[in-house]
Specification:
It is built from 15 helices and 16 strands. The protein is α+β, with helices and mostly antiparallel strands. A hairpin with a 5-residue loop joins strand 15 and strand 16. It is globular. The strands form five sheets. It has a six-stranded mixed beta sheet. Helix 6 runs antiparallel to helix 7. Helices cover about 45% and strands about 15% of the residues.
Length: about 475
């Protein structure tokens, strides 16, 4: 198969990678040196021929990359990877899960769980062919329900605390290449743990076209830190409503702001005037919340130590006041991480701060825009370039006449809808909105929803609804 080997070699060399993993090689051990040296000469290569007859996994790396094998099996090679040029350290797991044996795959999932428990503070990248889907959307032909083995796979990944890297390129990564009943699935994954997100938050992943394979190649790239964006827009944090001065501050600012204009204009201007006041409240009482909580906890510990050494009424009162302050900050911290993580199925007050913090990192990684492509397929990675391209895109979009649109008269809409509003109801729809209706809508709105464009959440309006009058 020299032509296929040449195609693979050309495919590999077009990407300036430091580490390359080849899976399902199907090469006899006797031909390993000949083929591997042809594909990537002067690279060091590791393999698992000692566990798999056809050497399912090959790992190539350049000279400045130090790779030390931790463990290996017929389905995985786990190794320490150190870049001597950038001084970056990671733990890498190259995976080729057994496509035929569910029991063998379960052994691999348990192996990942054990590694996850042993590597909580080590940046860990897990990639390869898992021969398993995680959701119904990861199979093109559709399924009525998720298979039992997929449910178990999800459970084990959650135990191992592994999260899919947000990727670009192909969503489905495998095809059966059949003319009759073609099927595509997402069998290949690139996953990381929380420590990876801490160490390399600007990682990008892409699934490339398959070329001469039936699987897409996965590419992981560690970028330099993203440029700091401009000042972040205002966002209301729900725990502010618990502060004893919150309602008083809102009332004073609202009454002191005099605006002329329609009611909607007055509302917008008063809400805008309130933003710097609430920012100041946050800085004074909740700024650098984790460190502030730690400082107050240390103060509480000192008071408790003095109380045990020399009990008196003043120290007892001081200890109670400090304990209330610490409890308030703990609830504020948990509310902060819950709101940022957007996890809705857990309630505050159960000590879920660690979990919310993990979900916050995962959500931040998923929502960060690290690259954009222009109309001429030019890749943009600098924040200033992406901002400029986004503005230009919407300017072109909003300033362009769609030639496919045709002008229609009112009769077209009358023919489109069979329903007609009964006589008299139009007056009801046009009647003034009452204060009772407004309050009913405000208090019936669900909690923990994303804020509107002005940054205020429904909790703000619920907490201060009785004070806000135009």
């Amino acid at each position: 198969m020299p032509s296929k080997q040449r195609s693979i070699k050309k495919y590999l060399l077009q990407y300036n990678a430091d580490v390359i993993c080849l899976l399902e090689t199907r090469v006899q051990h006797s031909k390993f040196l000949q083929i591997s040296s042809f594909l990537l000469p002067n690279w060091t290569v590791l393999h698992n021929y000692g566990y798999a007859r056809l050497g399912r996994i090959w790992i190539f790396h350049k000279a400045h990359i130090q790779v030390t094998v931790s463990t290996m099996s017929c389905q995985a090679i786990h190794c320490h990877v150190y870049n001597t040029l950038s001084c970056q350290y990671t733990f890498l797991s190259a995976i080729y899960a057994d496509p035929y044996s569910e029991m063998a795959r379960m052994e691999l999932w348990n192996e990942l769980v054990l590694l996850g428990q042993a590597l909580p503070a080590v940046p860990w990248l897990v990639g390869g062919d898992f021969n398993e889907i995680r959701s119904l959307s990861e199979r093109s032909d559709g399924l009525a329900c998720l298979p039992r083995e997929s449910v178990l796979f999800n459970d084990k990944l959650q135990e191992a605390e592994l999260h899919d890297l947000v990727s670009t390129g192909s969503f489905f990564t495998w095809s059966n290449n059949r003319c009759a009943m073609p099927i595509t699935k997402k069998l290949d994954r690139l996953m990381v743990n929380e420590s990876w997100l801490d160490a390399y938050p600007n990682t990008t992943a892409e699934f490339l076209p398959p070329g001469c394979s039936d699987h897409c190649a996965g590419c992981v790239e560690i970028h330099s830190p993203i440029e700091n964006a401009k000042r972040k827009p205002f966002k209301f944090f729900n725990f502010w409503t618990k502060h004893e001065q919150f309602l008083e501050i809102v009332k004073q600012t609202w009454d002191a702001t005099s605006v002329q204009g329609c009611y909607m204009f007055q509302l917008c201007k008063k809400l805008k005037a309130l933003k710097p006041i609430l920012r100041k409240l946050n800085v004074e009482h909740y700024g650098d919340l984790p460190n502030k909580l730690l400082q107050e906890q240390n103060k509480l510990h000192l008071i408790q130590a003095d109380l045990l050494a020399c009990p008196n009424e003043a120290l007892i009162r001081a200890e109670r006041e400090q304990a209330e302050k610490v409890a308030s900050l703990q609830l504020a911290e948990e509310s902060f991480y819950k709101q940022k993580s957007r996890v809705k199925w857990l309630q505050e007050g159960d000590g879920n701060t660690t979990y919310f913090h993990k979900m916050l990192k995962v959500r931040k990684s998923r929502n960060t825009i690290r690259e954009l492509y222009t109309d001429d397929n030019k890749r943009l990675t600098r924040m200033s370039e992406m901002e400029e391209e986004a503005v230009l895109f919407y300017k072109r979009l909003l300033g362009t006449v769609d030639e496919n649109c045709i002008k229609v008269d009112d009769s077209w809409f009358n023919d489109l809808f069979s329903f007609k509003l009964p006589t008299g109801l139009s007056d009801v729809l046009a009647s003034p909105v009452t204060e009772t209706e407004i309050r009913g809508v405000v208090f019936s709105s669900p909690s923990s929803k994303a804020p509107g464009p002005d940054g205020y959440t429904s909790e703000f309006y619920k907490a201060s609804c009785l004070l806000l009058e135009i």
